[in-house]
Amino acid sequence: MSDQFITINGLELPFKAGQTILDVARENNIPIPTLCHLKDATPTGSCRVCVVEVKGARSLLASCTTPAVKGMDVKTESAQVIQARKTVIELLLSSGNHNCAISGSNKGSWENLQLRANAGDGSQELCPVWGDCRLQELAYQYQVNAGRYEHTEIPYPLELKNPLIVRDFSRCIRCGRCVQACNEVQVNQAISYGYRGYDSKIVTGGDRPLIESDCVFCGECVQACPVGALVEKKARYVWRPWKSQKVRTTCPYCGVGCQQWLHVQDGKIVKVTGVEEGAPNKGRLCIKGRFGYDFIYSEDRLKTPLIREKNGEFREASWDEALDLVADKFKQIIDESGPDALAGVSCARSINEDSYFMQKLFRAVFKTNNIDHCART
Ligand code: FES
Predict the structure, then answer these.
(1) What is the C-alpha separation between 46 and 121, in angstroms, rounded?
(2) What pLDDT was estimated at residue 348?
(3) I want to staple 64 with a disulfide (CB 3.0 to 4.6 A). Which of 33, 37, 101, 240 is the partner?
(4) pLDDT reported for residue 162
(5) What angle do CA 357, 363, 367 make, to 5 degrees?
(6) In the CATH hierarchy, which top-level class contains the domain 245-297?
């Protein structure tokens, strides 16, 4: 038990060495809003939404980067704190295309937005993550819009060239979570910050599209993006958060057992994300786990066993017939040539339990050690 305490909103709370004010607040269910903070990555303190008032400090401090120090007296919701957060949110809303909060801004009315969105000119005005945007959530929570500041247009065009991810620089708030997800979480080192000032942008080496870069399309950056700057191509304008249900499952691709959320809408999977609080992947997924769910709906899927006839043609069979045939063939081979004439290769897509049963079948029932596991996925 720690003997060091800080006070947050009048509550005396213990902390451990190395914890930030945000860590202590979260551990004690005291809400502090964040935008750039990414769990398990080095805090950058770039957005300033998480500022708090610390007695004796000359200015407000970012709670995500400020270490807890014995005797600190912190206020997370003072008038000064609220005003600072509002200003940060207003500035972010005034830079780029955040049209969910356009009402009351200098840029135009909802009516104009709808007209532009319906123009069919490919301008894609409506935000694809409406209802699942951290900035939108904060704008509503703190009741701010982009009205006070001059609007800044982002000059970079939409990047639609990539097979799985759409990059919309006009919605990017340069929080850097995608950079950390790529470099610190997945350690792919494919993206970073580029240019300076108003021209600042998240770039790949040589500022090329993702498809021409070192990107492996794990989609960790998409999951980390708190706004609509990075979205799954397949889910864009299809997935609507308030219409979908989340179903937890285990990834079917390899034996690691990564935990996934299937986002199911009208009975179909429309996107997949990692379960942040779940071992072993802690929210991370690979390209197959995140994007490879189309096979479920493929017309080419085998739905019944097929038995090859003597003439080489396949015919449909029942499971009983197919399994009886396989069992008879196994028996025949063992009777004629002994158990070591058999060998089994367990599928890498199987769960550990299935692979365990497969080796039991070969070792305990067939009496051979000719059993292996396919390493390729
Ligand atoms: Fe702390 Fe962004 S969350 S500065």
Answers:
(1) 35
(2) 77
(3) 37
(4) 94
(5) 140
(6) mainly beta
Q: Pocket of ligand 1, candidates 34, 60, 135: which has the most ligand atoms within 8 Å of its Cβ, to mutate?
A: 34
Mean pLDDT over 338-361 rounds to 90
Q: Which atom of ligand 1 is nearest the CA belonging to 45?
A: 4
Supply 95's token pair: 């830079």
Residue 139: how many CB atoms within 10 A of its CB? 21
The rounded distance, in Å, linking the Cα atoms of 167 and 160 is 7
Q: What is the pLDDT of residues 92-109, one digit of tens each?
A: 998 888 877 654 444 555
Bridge partners (DSSP) listed for residue 233 = none
- What residue ranges do the domains of the chain occupy? 5-77, 245-297, 306-373
- How many other C-beta atoms lie within 10 A of the C-beta of residue 216? 14
Average the pLDDT over each of 6-20, 115-129, 192-206, 221-235 and give the range with the smallest value: 115-129
Residue 66, ligand 1, Cβ within 6 A:
no
What is the fold of 5-77?
A: Ubiquitin-like (UB roll) (3.10.20)
Kindly give the number of the ligand 1 atom that is closest to the alpha carbon of 34: 3
**Which structure tokens are listed for 85?**
């957060």
Of 118-132, 138-152, 256-270, which has the strongest mean pLDDT? 256-270
**pTM score of the predicted model:** 0.84
Q: What is the pLDDT of residues 191-217, one digit of tens each?
A: 999 998 888 999 999 999 999 999 999
Gap between the Cα atoms of 225 and 235, Å rounded: 15
For ligand 1, is residue 20 a contact (CB within 6 Å)? no
Please choose from 23, 32, 38, 48 the residue to mutate so as to test ligand 1's pocket, defined by most ligand atoms within 8 A of CB. Answer: 48
CA-nearest residue, atom 4 of ligand 1: 45
> What pLDDT, on a 0 to 100 scale, did the predictor assign at position 115?
61
